[in-house]
């Protein structure tokens, strides 16, 4: 959407942008997850033009907008117009978007050999293994606050088994 400058979470049935906060809603983790699905498709098709498009629009674009420049980590939700998202947990850092980003960047690097993608993999991996890991009992905590501190001590649940 927006001339290729935004991956929106919700669009109309005919692919048009919706009005209001629902239409401006972005989820960097979902965009990155879709990116590596699309990247697999491009690789299987043997289509380097599609691969380049996917890397640019579904890996790099959501990462650049979703990475917190102040504290590191990927925001859970964003607003495409830079307004405060309506979801109260918007600034939290969740385990799964970071996993999706590592998969996407390593897959992109593996296929393209672009060292910038490997650098982004290491950037996300460094944050993830430093912030989410429980140094005392192992495993990852699932939910951090914006500053990267553990927000919830649970390690499992309906979405993280």
TrEMBL record:
Pathway the protein takes part in: Amino-sugar metabolism; N-acetylneuraminate degradation
Domain of life: Eukaryota
SUPFAM superfamilies assigned: Six-hairpin glycosidases (SSF48208)
GO BP term, pick one: carbohydrate metabolic process
Residues annotated as signal peptide: none
Classification via InterPro entries: 6-hairpin_glycosidase_sf, 6hp_glycosidase-like_sf, AGE/CE
Catalysed reactions listed for this entry: an N-acyl-D-glucosamine = an N-acyl-D-mannosamine
Protein name as annotated: N-acylglucosamine 2-epimerase
UniProt source species: Crocuta crocuta (Spotted hyena)
């Amino acid at each position: 959407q927006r001339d290729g400058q935004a991956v929106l979470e919700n669009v109309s049935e005919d692919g048009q942008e919706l009005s209001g906060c629902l239409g401006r809603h972005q989820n960097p983790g979902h965009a990155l997850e879709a990116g590596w699905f699309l990247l697999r498709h491009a690789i299987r098709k043997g289509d380097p033009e599609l691969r380049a498009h996917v890397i640019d629009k579904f890996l790099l674009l959501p990462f650049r907008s979703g990475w917190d420049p102040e504290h590191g980590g990927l925001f859970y939700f964003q607003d495409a117009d830079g307004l405060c998202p309506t979801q109260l947990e918007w600034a939290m850092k969740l385990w799964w978007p970071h996993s999706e980003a590592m998969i996407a960047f390593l897959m992109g690097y593996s296929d393209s050999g672009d060292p910038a993608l490997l650098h982004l993999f290491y950037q996300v991996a460094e944050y993830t293994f430093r912030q989410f890991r429980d140094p005392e009992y192992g495993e990852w905590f699932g939910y951090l606050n914006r500053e990267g501190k553990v927000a919830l001590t649970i390690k499992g649940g309906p979405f993280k088994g």
